[in-house]
Amino acid sequence: MKLRLSRHGGVANPRDTYGYRCGLRLALTRNASVSFCAAIRRAEHWPDPASKPHRGTAVPDHLFYQSAVKLPTIARAQGVYAWDVDGRRYVDACSGAIVAQIGHGHPAVRAAMLDQLDKVAFAYRTQFENQPALDLAQRLVDLGGGRFDRVFFSSGGSESVESALKIARQYWVCRGEPQRKVFIARKPSYHGATMGALSMTSYTPLTQPFGPMFPLYPKVASPTQYRVPAGRSVAEHALACADELEAAILEAGAAHVAAFIAEPIGGASTGAEVPHAGYFSRIREICSRHGVLLILDEVMTGMGRTGRWFGYEHWDVRADIVCLAKGLGAGYYPVSAIMTRAEVTDPVLAAGGFQHGYTYAGNPLASATALAVIDVIEREGLVENAASTGAYLLQSLEQLASRHGFIGDVRGRGFLLAVEYVADRASKEPFAPALCFGEAITRAARDCGLIVYPRKSLMGETGDHTLIAPPLITTPAQCDEIVDLLDAACTAVQRTADAR
Questions:
Q1: CA distance to 41, 174, 311, per residue, from 22 (Å)
Q2: For residue range 89-117, what is the model confidence (pLDDT) as tens digits?
């Protein structure tokens, strides 16, 4: 068995491939009676995921995150590449968690951070203003093209969404309409892990354990262009999804609805789902008709990721509040923000102030870092590169799909792309959850030296997809490398299925 890995310029050792290591027979169908993940563990003689060998770890591991799976230990990163402690190189094809907008180790950002550290790293917002925060707010307003004139800072995406929900709620209270307390979101969706943001989320594995802890707000359908109901065109389905919002508003009572929140282009929960062009114009019309605020969650899509500074620019959507994070700090320092207008904030400030805030909000080091990131994006033309090279990567992934029958769809904009896997391409039937197909691709990719981001597009329960979202600095040659390695991973998983 031979496997071409172009980045090594030769033939990889078959024993290093995912298919060889697993050494198992598994039919990739929905009727398979064995869990793919469990079968892998048995084939490699692992008692459980926590016992998988952890390269580079010689001391007890007291750290835990979402699972017990052991991973390589990173040593350093530069550009679009990362190296583990054993010296193995990986291509970062998902910018970590769609964060590393300008790649790793950029000298201009390092210099800006060191310069700010020599002045002041932290100043609390109730005690001092700081120039970097003032400058960053102005910079974001300028990038917004005059649509917004107020900015509020926080540290992460969940905090940004929480801030948006709270300013919307307090706005209505200060307007004398305290009954407006209903928020509407979409299904599936992901808006964050804190309780308010989680209440806007429809992703079963993440919400189910905590459901009793937050209100069950109305959810309406996300506008997929891949799984369109029979008898509808893509355009008709998009408008039908938008009209679900109006039905939900009327059911709750328009006078009780505070806001509707949505991502311009779907992120992890739908796998870079791009809505039809008519969708957001109908959404804006409905929100305006019923006096409902429109919140756009640009945590993943903002700061050039989709080939525009903000995802809403693709359809000229007029939002009331926009959430930013991830690419704003680009992984160099946690920073997030909401952008809104004075007509939203003025009633709140006049009534005694926004009753909300975070310890690190608008701190000088975070703000200086974000300013340096924006400088790099502008100076190096990275928004334009995301548009042009992202289109090239999309085309290359479409060619990859022609070589693997289990790839059902390739979609996205700029450098926010996704590959969705199906058991049957004609019917678009997803793989059974027990197969853990997306996780298999992810592990195979990692074994080939490629880091990707797996999720499920059907409420987090099935519909395996892989997000491909490399840093905005990625070149066409590096796109070729990404596609070659993903091709190798797909081939390895297919060989495992076909073995014996």
A1: 8, 61, 41
A2: 999 999 999 999 999 999 999 999 999 99
